[in-house]
Amino acid sequence: MLEPLRHRLSASRALPYLALLGLIVGLLAGATVILFRESIEFLQGLYLNQDNEYRPLEPWIRFTLPLVGALLIGLVFQLLPTAMRQVGVVHVMERLAYHQAHLPYQNAVVQFFGAIASIASGHSVGREGPSVHLGAANGSLLGQWLKLPNNSLTVLVACGAAGAIGASFNTPLAGVIFAMEVVLMEYSMVSFAPVILAAVSATALMRLVYGTEPAFSVPAMHMGSAWELPLVVLMALVIAVFANGFIYLMRLFSSSLTHWPIWTRMTLGGLATGLIALFVPEIMGVGHNTIDQALTGQLGLTLLIALALGKLLATTAGLGMGLPGGLIAPTMVIGAAVGGVAGIVANYLFPGDVSNHGFYAMIGMGAMMAATLQAPLAALMAILELTANPNILFPGMLAVIIATLTTSELFGRQSVFLTTMRARGLDYRNDPISQSLRRLGVMTVLDKSFQILPAEVERDAVENALVQHPHWILVTEEGEPTRMLPGADLAHALSSDVEAERFDLLSLPARRMELTAVSSRVTMQHALRLMQENQLLALAVMEGRRVLGVVSMEKIEAYYRFSA
Questions:
Q1: pLDDT above 70 for 38
Q2: Which residues contact 158 (CB under 8 A, 6 or more apart)?
């Protein structure tokens, strides 16, 4: 029943079914994010006040909590196989690039409990990155369970990521753009409908539980006049410096002390957080309350400066040393703090002529997120939906672009996720050819004109095989296809030697090609890479032990040239 659908999905010809799956993935992602959030808040409720603030805690508790938490998390991670420790957005991108969107459930379980422990013990990490991993895992695991082709798994992973961001922030549109701009790093029409439905369904489920109010309740602030635009540009340039520092420190910590045991590295990350929390407790936890206070102008100049620097160091040290958690919310806290400082300074220099410093904090929040993730549109939509304030669009567009371009062009930085991947010796191929081939499965270019013969074969069997004029003859050894030759070559050999009653297909004059088997679920990108790495010209496409057809490098290249 599902086999025709799988073949249609391989060629991206089943959009209604993919859209339905996107809706289901969104609901699964939304439910998972809600459970994740409730688990964190339950643990925090055991020792924090109703606003989840860390400042009222005794200094020794603020120091001990992240230190002991990091030690315990590290000891558990030390017992796990190295492969199971990989979590977060970078892990999702790695599985997309190297494993055709197959996300293991074991890593998702580690992410769920590890991030809960990390956030609940006061580390300077966010819950949005883990939510993306969990949402993406929902999409991938559903697709694997249904045995869908791998190009469809990529779309379902994007659906899970969009649903997770939508449910975490109450920002469905930002979830869609984040999935396209950050995770997939491409916009394709076949992905839009499923991803949008996933973001909508996940956000709707979240709103049923938490209500429809935006994440941050701020007054309707706006820019006083166009004369403030130079101030916005200067603020964006300063934020680009912080974004460059954030990316640099993430790479530095990620590549430092890698020969040390993981529990030691995590404990050092917890020690850094504990020391900073002694003086700036606002750096602890996700930081949503801190952002709210910055946006409403409740934080002073000294505290904002200390918050920006402390959050920068605590987050990069913790995450770089391996602690599970996200970095999106911390970048927003840093951006809001830097923006708040810019607003206070501007009001001091030009009293009565510039906007409230909470307005600059709002713009700074988006600019820092955009520059760090190299995702200006996702950041702009996020701050618009988070604050429900359309007045930020005009100055916000300027700020996010200036900060993003300065970080990428002046400082030469890629996104923090790509930088972290490269620190681990990984790459993320996203050129136009890879994008195009990743969207389609091998069934798209499957050549079904073939016959299967053993290496030693009687003349009658050869004649019967050539009745259908097959393009290819697949030669099997011990039941497995290992060679391939053109049907025309075998026909020529048959007519050239009219006396032979038996043929050795491995020695008769013909153009033979090495052949290896590949699953019918793989993408064209994977098939092409497999042929290039093993110096093959063709692959036998199989479903179980049944050969479905042949895919050749020539066929893939011809398809790409035609579609391009």
A1: yes
A2: 136, 139, 179, 180, 183, 184, 191, 194, 195
